[in-house]
Design goal:
Shape: globular
Strand order of the largest sheet: 4-3-1-5
Radius of gyration: 21 Å
Number of strands: 13
Largest sheet: 4 strands, mixed
Structural class: alpha/beta
Number of helices: 15
C-alpha cells in the first residue's frame, strides 16, 4: 500500500477550514485527516499552501485539450452544457488522469435556428457540431452523430427526451433565448408549453434539468416550467424581490457565470492573464482569447449582475461557480478553461460572498446541487 502524508498545509474540506492537520492519502484516496505520520510514509511538506478539493466548473463547452488545461488550474470536473462528451463518448477522457473529468448534457432543446445556432458561423470548421472526436489531435470522429433536439411543439420536446437519455446525456438542457442579449434579437425561442412539456418529461425520466436564460422574462419561464437549475443569470435588468423570491421559493440553483456576463459587456480577462501564475499555464492562443471578450451586450451593467448574485445568495439560493468557457478563439474571449474559475470566484467575492462561500460554490455547493450528475 502506498501512503503519502501531506503536512503543514492549511486544509479546506469544501465547507470549512480545518487548520493544518496531517492528511494521509492511501493508494490515491484520502484515508485520514489528522493524526501522526505513519512509518514509511512519503511526506509532502505543504507549509504555506492550502489543500482543498478539486474545483468544479458548472458550465463549460469542452474537449480533451481544454480538460487538460482545466486540470492545470485545479479544476477536476467540468459540466459541459452543449457538446458531445456524453456518457458513451468519453472513455478516452475517463481513463486519462491528465484530464479533468466531464459530464455533459449533449445538445440542448431549442427551435430550428434558435440559440446557439447563430454562434456556429463564428466557430472554426473543426469546432462545429458533429460526431465526437477521439483523444489524439486530428483523430477521426468516433461514435454516432449527436442528437440535435430541434423542437417547436410540446410533442416534439417529449419525443426527444428519451432519445437524449438513450444517447448518454447526463442531464437535460433547455435553451430559453430570443437572441436579444447576444445581438441577434428575434431568434426563434421555445414557448412556455413546449418548455413545460420537455421539463416534465425529463423529470419523468429522472433527469436533472437546466436552462440557459439570459433575461428576466426567460428566467421566469424556466422557473415556472419547473427547471432544477439556471446555468446563467439574467443580465438585461437589475433583480427585483419578485424574481429573487420566485427563484428561491422554487428551490432552483443558479450558475451565474458572472465572468461570461462581464465578457458579454466587453470586459476582458487581461488582468487575469497578466498574473504570472496564470500566464505560465496558458499557450499563446488561450492567452489571446483571455485578453479578448464576447462584447455582444455593451449596454449591460456588471454591477447589476453582481448585485443580483448577492441578493440570490443572501436569499439562500445555491449559487454555483461556472464560466461558460469554450474554445481558444477571440470572438469567444475573456475566458480560459480553469483560469476563469478563479476569476469567477473573484467576482463572487466582489458580489459580496465571503472567500469561504465562493470556494463552497466551486466545491461542496456544486457537489450538493449536482450530486446525482457528478456521482460519488
Amino acid at each position: 500500500m502506498s501512503v503519502t502524508a501531506i503536512t503543514g498545509a492549511r486544509v479546506f474540506d469544501g465547507e470549512k477550514t480545518l487548520g493544518a492537520p496531517t492528511v494521509l492519502v492511501e493508494d490515491g484516496r484520502i484515508a485520514l485527516i489528522g493524526g501522526d505520520v505513519p512509518d514509511g510514509a512519503q511526506v509532502v511538506d505543504g507549509s504555506g499552501a492550502t489543500l482543498l478539493p478539486g474545483l468544479i466548473d458548472a458550465h463549460v463547452h469542452t474537449g480533451p485539450g481544454a480538460l487538460a488545461l482545466a486540470l492545470r488550474f485545479g479544476v477536476t470536473t467540468e459540466l459541459e452544457m452543449q457538446g458531445t462528451n456524453t456518457r458513451d463518448n468519453r472513455a478516452h477522457i475517463t481513463s486519462d488522469d491528465a484530464l479533468a473529468d466531464v459530464r455533459s448534457s449533449g445538445f440542448g432543446l431549442t427551435p430550428p435556428g434558435g440559440h446557439p445556432e447563430e454562434l456556429f458561423d463564428r466557430l472554426p470548421a473543426d469546432a462545429r457540431p458533429g460526431p465526437p472526436k477521439g483523444g489524439a489531435p486530428g483523430s477521426r470522429p468516433v461514435g454516432k452523430p449527436p442528437v440535435r433536439p430541434f423542437v417547436t411543439t410540446p410533442e416534439e420536446a417529449v419525443a426527444f427526451i428519451p432519445r437524449l437519455v438513450e444517447s448518454g446525456s447526463d442531464y437535460i438542457k433547455f435553451m430559453v433565448d430570443d437572441g436579444s442579449v447576444e445581438g441577434h434579437p428575434g431568434l426563434p425561442m421555445l414557448d412556455q408549453a413546449t418548455l413545460n412539456a420537455g421539463v416534465a418529461e425529463a423529470k419523468r425520466h429522472g433527469m436533472l434539468t437546466v436552462a440557459h436564460a439570459l433575461t428576466v422574462d426567460a428566467t421566469r419561464m424556466a422557473v415556472e416550467a419547473g427547471i432544477d437549475g439556471l446555468v446563467h443569470l439574467f443580465m438585461d435588468q437589475p433583480h427585483t424581490d419578485e424574481i429573487t423570491d420566485l427563484i428561491k421559493d422554487a428551490g432552483v440553483f443558479v450558475v451565474p457565470c458572472t465572468v461570461l456576463s462581464a465578457s458579454m459587456m466587453g470586459i476582458t480577462g487581461s488582468a487575469l492573464a497578466d498574473d504570472p501564475r496564470v500566464a505560465s499555464r496558458l499557450d499563446a492562443d488561450w492567452d489571446a482569447a483571455l485578453r479578448s471578450s464576447f462584447d455582444r451586450y455593451p449596454q449591460g451593467r456588471l454591477d447589476d449582475v453582481l448585485t443580483s448574485v448577492k441578493a440570490l445568495h443572501e436569499a439562500g439560493v445555491d449559487v454555483l461557480a461556472g464560466t461558460d468557457v469554450s474554445i481558444a478563439h477571440p470572438s469567444f474571449g475573456g475566458l480560459a478553461h480553469g483560469a476563469s474559475v478563479h476569476h469567477e470566484l473573484q467576482y463572487l467575492v466582489q458580489a459580496g460572498l465571503t472567500p469561504i462561500d465562493a470556494l463552497r460554490a466551486a466545491t461542496s455547493g456544486s457537489s450538493r446541487s449536482l450530486g446525482r450528475v457528478i456521482g460519488p
